[in-house]
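May I ask for an example protein's residues together with how it folds?

___
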Amino acid sequence: METRREQIIKMLRNSDRFISAEQIARSLDVKDVRSIYSDIQHIAKTIRSLSGGKEIVIMDPPRCRKCGFVFKNMKHLGKPGRCPKCKSTWIEPARFKINSRR
């Protein structure tokens, strides 16, 4: 039996596209998406450490669907509440993937 984090790692490694925390939560039947963000933060440290820096978790940052603002400098992982530029709450969440460095 795999732990939830092991399942997330498998999903992020085997996917050919970026996956959002919401998609991961739905596929694992998890109600609290914030716990998935916490897991991804931990996974990023673990993957980098265990692979000696050969694998990393890549984030496609959240962006505003209305004006296109990209949330590049995020202090905490999660879905922003609203856009600082246009104040819209129509935010596309961050998406993740595990990638090999060469």
Summary: Residues 4-100 form one domain.
